[in-house]
Amino acid sequence: KATIDLDCQVVFRPNEVEFQDLKTGRVIGEGSKHHLYHLQTAKTLNPINSMCLSSA
């Protein structure tokens, strides 16, 4: 749902997650914490509310 609403892609790495705008490639959010990813919003024209994503 987040990727559709924000028109972005999500890149999961072993210790972090990153949200990238599909049109610009710009990082619009990132974060990590153990097995629960806490998204910190980047300062953009289209900010995201903080959200948590489980890696499991």
Summarize the structure.
With 56 residues, the chain is mainly beta. It is 9% helix and 45% strand. It has one domain.
Please describe what this structure looks like:
The chain is mainly β and 56 residues long. The protein has one domain. The protein is 9% helix and 45% strand. The protein contains 1 helix and 6 strands. It has one helix spanning 2-6; strands at 8-13, 16-21, 27-31, 36-38, 40-41, 52-54. It has a 4-stranded antiparallel beta sheet with strand order 1-2-3-5. Strands 4-6 form a two-stranded antiparallel sheet. The chain is elongated. It starts with a helix and ends with a strand. Residues 45-52 have low confidence and may be disordered.
| Content of β-strand | 35-45%
Total helices: the number is: 1
Strand order, main sheet: write it out. 1-2-3-5
Mean pLDDT across every amino acid position: 74
Characteristic key phrases:
elongated; two-stranded antiparallel ribbon; mainly beta; four-stranded antiparallel sheet; 1 helix; 56 residues
